[in-house]
C-alpha cells in the first residue's frame, strides 16, 4: 500500500533527472565517495582506465605464473649476434632480448618493477607532502610561510632534474630511484593539500567543532584533514602515471639498476637504443607498455577528478 508520504512527495522534474543522470536520491542522502562511484560507473573513460590499470596490476602480481622463463635467464645468448636478435619462435613468443633473455618474460616482470617503484615513490611523495601540507594548512601563521617558501624552492626546480640529482647522489639502487621520484612529488602534494585545508577551515562543521570546545589539533586531524584528502587522492592516481614515466626516464639516463639484465621497461629501452635500426621492436614493445599504462592511470585519474569535483564535470 502506498504511504501518505510517497503520495505527497513530488516527482523529480524530467530536466533535473536528466542532469543528475537519473540517479534517485534516497532519504538518507548520498555520500561523496558513493556518488563518485556511481558517476565513475557511467563514465567510459573511467571504465577504460580502470581496465588498463587492473590488467597492469594483475600482470605485475602474477608475473611468476605468466612469464615462461626467469627474467634474467640468458641461456640463449649464443643465438644473439651483433647485427640481429632472434624473432618470435615457438619457444619465445616475442623473441629474445639483447642479452639473450626471453623478451616476453622481461616485459611481464618489467610491469612488476614499474608498479613497485611507481607505487612506493608516489606513496613517499604523498606522505611527505601530507606532512608539509598539514603543517601549513592546519597551523598557518609563520609555519605556513616557512613551509610554503620551502615548497616554492622545490617547485622552482624541474621535477625530473631534481629526481636526477637525488638519484645521482644516492647511487644506482632501486630504493634511490623511489626516493628521488618521491621527493620530486612532495611539493605538488603539499601545495594541493594546503589549499584544500584552507578551503575547509571556514566550513560550518569546523565552526561547530570550535563552538563545542574541541581542541585545535582534534579539529585539524579529525575533521579538516580527512575532508581535504579527496583532491590529493585524485592527484596520486595521476602522479602514478608520471612516476612510471620518470622511472623509465631515469633508467634511460643510466640512473636505474646497474644490472643490464634487470627486467624494467626503462632499462629495456636503454638496452635497445643500439639496435633501433636492426631490431626496433626491442624498444617499441616496452615503449608501448609504458604509454598504455600511463594512459590507464591518466584516464582513471581524470575521471575520478570529475566525479569528485562538481566544477570540473563536463
Q: Could you please describe the fold and organization of this structure?
A:
The protein is mainly α and 314 residues long. It contains 13 helices and no strands. The chain has helices at 4-8, 14-19, 32-41, 44-61, 63-66, 103-139, 141-155, 159-170, 174-200, 204-211, 216-252, 265-272, 281-308. Helix 3 crosses helix 13 (281-308). The longest helix is centred in the middle third of the chain and has 37 residues, at 103-139. The protein is elongated and about 75 Å long. The model is unreliable at 1-28 (pLDDT under 50).
Largest sheet: none
* Cα shape: elongated
Poorly predicted segments: 1-28
- Beta-strand percent range: under 5%
In a few lines, what is going on in this structure?
It contains 13 helices and no strands.
What descriptive keywords fit this protein?
single chain, 314 residues, 68% helix, disordered N terminus
What does the secondary structure layout of this molecule look like, with pairings?
Blueprint: H1 4-8, H2 14-19, H3 32-41, H4 44-61, H5 63-66, H6 103-139, H7 141-155, H8 159-170, H9 174-200, H10 204-211, H11 216-252, H12 265-272, H13 281-308
Helix pairs in contact: 3-13, 4-6, 4-13, 6-7, 6-9, 6-11, 7-9, 8-9, 9-11, 10-11, 11-12, 11-13, 12-13
Amino acid at each position: 500500500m502506498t504511504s501518505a508520504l510517497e503520495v505527497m512527495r513530488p516527482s523529480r522534474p524530467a530536466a533535473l533527472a536528466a542532469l543528475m543522470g537519473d540517479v534517485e536520491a534516497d532519504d538518507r542522502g548520498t555520500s561523496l565517495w558513493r556518488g563518485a562511484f556511481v558517476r565513475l560507473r557511467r563514465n567510459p573513460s573511467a571504465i577504460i582506465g580502470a581496465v588498463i590499470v587492473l590488467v597492469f596490476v594483475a600482470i605485475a602480481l602474477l608475473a611468476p605464473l605468466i612469464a615462461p622463463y626467469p627474467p634474467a635467464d640468458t641461456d640463449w645468448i649464443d643465438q644473439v649476434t651483433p647485427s640481429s636478435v632472434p624473432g618470435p619462435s615457438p619457444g619465445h613468443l616475442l623473441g629474445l632480448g639483447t642479452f639473450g633473455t626471453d623478451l616476453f618474460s622481461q616485459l611481464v616482470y618489467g610491469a612488476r618493477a614499474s608498479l613497485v617503484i611507481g607505487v612506493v615513490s608516489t606513496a613517499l611523495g604523498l606522505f611527505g607532502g601530507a606532512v608539509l601540507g598539514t603543517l601549513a594548512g592546519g597551523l598557518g601563521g609563520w609555519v605556513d610561510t616557512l613551509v610554503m617558501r620551502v615548497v616554492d624552492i622545490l617547485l622552482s626546480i624541474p621535477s625530473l632534474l631534481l629526481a636526477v640529482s637525488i638519484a645521482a647522489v644516492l647511487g644506482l639502487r632501486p630504493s634511490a630511484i623511489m626516493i628521488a621520484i618521491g621527493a620530486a612529488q612532495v611539493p605538488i602534494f603539499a601545495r594541493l593539500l594546503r589549499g584544500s585545508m584552507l578551503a575547509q577551515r571556514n566550513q560550518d562543521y569546523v565552526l561547530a567543532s570550535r563552538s563545542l570546545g574541541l581542541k585545535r589539533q582534534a579539529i585539524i586531524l579529525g575533521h579538516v584533514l580527512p575532508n581535504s584528502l579527496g583532491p590529493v587522492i585524485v592527484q596520486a592516481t595521476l602522479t602514478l602515471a608520471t612516476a612510471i614515466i620518470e622511472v623509465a626516464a631515469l633508467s634511460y639516463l643510466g640512473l636505474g639498476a646497474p644490472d643490464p639484465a634487470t627486467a624494467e621497461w626503462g632499462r629495456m629501452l636503454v638496452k635497445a637504443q643500439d639496435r633501433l635500426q636492426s631490431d626496433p621492436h626491442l624498444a617499441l614493445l616496452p615503449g608501448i607498455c609504458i604509454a598504455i599504462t600511463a594512459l590507464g592511470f591518466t584516464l582513471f585519474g581524470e575521471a575520478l577528478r570529475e566525479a569528485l569535483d562538481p566544477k570540473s564535470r563536463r
